[in-house]
Amino acid sequence: MALSLVHSTLFSKTSQLFLHTKTGFSHFSSSIPFSSSALPSNPKTWRRPVISVLELGGVKIARDDVVRDDPTNNVPDTIFSKLGLQLHRRDQHPLGILKNTIYDYFDTNYSNKFDKFDELCPIVSVKQNFDDVLVPADHVSRSYNDTYYVDSQTVLRCHTSAHQAELLRKGHTHFLVTGDVYRRDSIDSTHYPVFHQMEGFRVFSPDEWEASGVDGTSFAAEDLKKCLEGLATHLFGAVEMRWVDTYFPFTNPSFELEIYFQEKWLEVLGCGVTEQEILKRNGKLNNVAWAFGLGLERLAMVLFDIPDIRLFWSNDERFTSQFSKGQLGIKFKPFSKYPPCYKDMSFWINESFTENNLCEVVRGIAGDLVEEVSLIDNFSNKKGMTSHCYRIAYRSMERSLTDEEINDLQMSVREQVQSKLNVVLR
Question: Its domain of life (predicted)?
Answer without folding.
Answer: Eukaryota
